[in-house]
Amino acid sequence: MNETIPDKEAYQTNRRRMCWAALGMMIACTIATIYDPERMSEADSILIAQYLAQSGLVGAYFALGGK
Predict the structure, then answer these.
(1) Which of 15, 10, 8, 2 is nearest to 60 (CA)?
(2) pLDDT classification of 58: cutoffs 50, 70, 90
(3) What own/partner pairs with CB < 8 Å and gap ≥ 24 does 41-44 have?
(4) Per-residue burial over 20-44, b = 16 or more CB atoms within 10 Å of its CB, e = otherwise
């Protein structure tokens, strides 16, 4: 880990919270889409971009979090 980070424990805690928040938003978005697909179809491209970005964040955290 980078030596310029003064509080490594807080850094790791904040990364973990950010990942879980992104995962929670992905789950909420999926549930909302299943619940009311007609309403969500209006924002289709925005939802896809949001889901792609958040899945990349969560995937990167879990892939690189163990190093």
Answers:
(1) 15
(2) confident
(3) none
(4) eebbeebeebeeebeeeeeeeeeee
